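Customer ticket, subject: "Can you confirm the structure for OmpA family protein?"

Message body: Hello, I'm evaluating your service for our small team and ran a test protein. I'd like someone to confirm that this is what the system normally returns, since I don't have a reference to compare against.
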Amino acid sequence: MLNFNKVPLNIEDEDSDNSSFYLAIADLMSGVLMVFALLFITTLLQLQEAKEQLSQQRRIFVGELVGHLKGNEIDVKVNEETGEVSVREAILFDEGSAQLKPEGKAELSKFIPLYSQIIFSNPDFEREISRVIIEGHTSSKGSYETNMELSLMRSLAVTRYIFSEELQFPNKPELTPKIMAAGRGEIEAEPEYDNPSDRKVVFRFQFRGENPISENP
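Agent reply: Thanks for trying us out. I re-ran your input and got the following:
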């Protein structure tokens, strides 16, 4: 006959071992989570610091750009917040045309070398400005398709002039790889209103990591 009084009962010891095991796992998981939390916080701080440095570089560049352009007789409009430079359509092209006028070339021959000079005057500007986007814009007069095509053809005409032998300036070999042409059509124009100020060519710089599509109205 089996005597249950003589059978060793180690249930309490097994429970104690299991509790120690689970506590060790919990401590390990807490440590892992703590490491991930610290890494996450460190990454956020680094991203914030990089964003602040980018904003500072943008402010410095825009300040330099505004200061230089105001000191020269160049018929352009500068957005003092974004650094976008607008050239009126009437200076560059005849109505409905994508062929640069002589006076348009003359204005670009004054503006482009100065714009390039500012970009390459500072190693930080040169390194961080990845693109100079030349955007064609139209008013809402005419069809969407026609305006989109015309705006692209005009941005390409300006780009081709910069690339051509007609225009020479010291930093041309460094600037040309950064240039990108874009047609914006009537996207930013006032709807159903033929506003002459909507018809323009815009020079916009893009820092590394930024969206190449302008979000400014």
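A couple of notes from the result: The chain has two domains: 9-46, 54-207. Residues 11-70 form the longest helix (60 residues). Feel free to reply with more questions.
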